[in-house]
Design brief:
Helices cover 42% and strands 17% of the residues. Strand 2 and strand 3 form a beta hairpin.
Length: 138
């Protein structure tokens, strides 16, 4: 799974940001190895129904994940999106996780959304078919 093949933005992190990102990336490493139906079930455990966050806070979480993992900063969109969902859960941020694809040219991708807006994505997701979605009343 993955779309971007360039390195994502990385930043200097505080000690607590670095450790929470490392733990989330490590947990996500194992979660993404699950079958899709089980992956969705596990991610549903991490959905927050109500909460408040702004876009820049979620972007900062995404950047922290990219900063501790070259895989997530590169071609690891599935692991990155799951790690962001894990951190968001503990900060009570209501995100939606999505996985989808486009046909021409074929690209599969996973991402998170806040209030229906993809967070930190540099590609146009409007022509993607969403195959799996968690959160947002799913």
């Amino acid at each position: 799974m993955s779309s971007p093949i360039y390195m994502e933005h990385r930043a200097q992190l505080s000690l607590s940001e670095r450790w929470s990102a490392r733990l989330a990336v490590a947990a996500a490493y194992f979660i993404v190895k699950l079958k899709p139906t089980l992956l969705v079930r596990v991610l549903r455990l991490f959905v927050v129904e109500q909460g408040q966050a702004d876009y820049t806070e979620v972007e900062r979480i995404r950047t922290s994940v990219n900063s501790v993992s070259p895989r997530c900063a590169g071609n690891g969109c599935l692991q990155r999106s799951v790690a962001v969902m894990l951190i968001a859960r503990f900060r009570k941020i209501p995100l939606t996780w999505k996985s989808g694809f486009r046909i021409k040219p074929f690209v599969a991708h996973a991402w998170v959304e806040l209030n229906g807006q993809p967070v930190g994505e540099n590609i146009d997701l409007s022509n993607f078919f969403v195959s799996l979605s968690v959160g947002d009343k799913s």
